[in-house]
Amino acid sequence: MTITRTAVVTGAAQGMGKGIIEALRKSGHTVHGVDREDADLSQPESAKAYFEKIGRVDILVNCAGGVVGQTHKPLEEITDDAWKQIFDANLQTTFLSTRAVVKGMKENGWGRIVNISSGAGRSVSLTGIQAYATAKAAQIGFTRQMAHELGQYGITVNCIAPGFVLSNPSTIKQWESYGPEGQEKLKMGIATRRLGKAEDIANGVSFFVQEESDWVTGQCLSIDGGHSLF
Prior knowledge:
This protein is α/β, with parallel strands linked by helices. The chain has a single domain (6-168, 197-222), classed as NAD(P)-binding Rossmann-like Domain (Rossmann fold). The chain is built from 7 helices and 6 strands, in the order βαβαβαβαβαααβ. The chain is globular, with a radius of gyration of 17 Å. The protein starts with 5 loop residues before the first strand and ends in a 7-residue tail after the last strand.
């Protein structure tokens, strides 16, 4: 059964966010996509103002994040600002956006929150970026804790850990840096022998937000073509 809901998808400017927005709209939902150019959701006042403007939100997909242009450096060379930038983009936005919508979800007795983490949060970052792997692992922990806290109000909170998806300039640059030999090696570590698409992640979101998924919460679903098997 499909009921029209109001959804917000953060990180809307790039591949996965766009794919999720398209899937939710195809399901008949009213979807607001937000990216940093629309509102800086890592800043409390900006996040508050944005969600107050939207009004009640039934579905929240926290897709904002990424490596914010960073590459691997040894830990002793990581600056405070570099560490904070990645945590702001990935974890702070998730916290502030979730905090902004839960009051309305509680009042309505229904809500769906899906956090887009990463395979790096369940294992290690292929790029070796320490803050990214740590922030994504923290998103998974936040998912579980919020599922425990909010389930009694009819709100489910779940998480997706994507594998390698060519969805933005950073992942494309990373893929190209491997060269033909490295690319083949990476694909051989994926059971389905292909990289992910934005649609693969959107399919997982569609499952978590549907009416019939109301007894599924606190889960972290790896959508990675079987990469986590290896």
